[in-house]
Amino acid sequence: MFSQNTLFSLVALFFAAQPALGQILINGQIFTGALSIVDSPAPQSTLHAGSTTGIAIDISGDGHLDQAASTPNSGLATSFDSLEIYLVSYETKLNLTVSQGPGLLTQETGSTVKHLNWLIDTCVPSGDYNLTFYEGSHIDKQPYFTITPLPIAIQNTQQSGDCSNGTNTLQSFPQAQSPPAHSPWLNGNETAVSFPSTTASSAITTLSIHIFAALISIISLSSLAF
Questions:
Q1: What is the CATH number of the domain that holds 161?
Q2: Looking at the structure, do residues 181 and 91 belong to the same domain, yes or no?
Q3: Per residue in 36-87, pLDDT tens?
Q4: Backbone torsions φ then ψ of 10, nearest 5 degrees
């Protein structure tokens, strides 16, 4: 049987081990853990359903990456394999495709920045979301899979029914990924900026409540043995 001191230490360790979400924000750009750099939208932007929002992604590493590296599976030592974007919220229970497949990387041939004019469907309810970037890449011949959530809010004063086109199963949080230690375009000493996100924090909070309740139950039962 665990001692009470051990159990209380487990509770403290549990809260200390909660994942912290952070991004590297430099001169208005979001550096993901992998190759892509998000120029827009800015984190915590408020977007409006029924309107078009511009998404811009630098795929050159601020000029460090050869243009051919943006071609999926180019075979270069450092290159993109895939880059997809989804709108995700645990608050509104929505996982909506924004960009899927190789089209984003292969469009605008010769451009170091890929642009997407995203029309936000009027079916999307108001709430807090993550514009989530899923990137497969090779860096110095090592494969990585990186998930970068960019928190935004969406306002919708005239919601038109439930979304049906482009919807996906809402995944558990946190999702498995295998990112590099830091962006290859940074030295790893930059300070990560934490952006509060209902999308992520709701999932963490729900999980925390269940696990913490279980720990408290163990403590209560254990105290009866003393």
A1: 2.60.40.10
A2: yes
A3: 999 999 999 999 999 999 999 999 999 999 889 999 989 999 999 999 999 9
A4: -65, -40
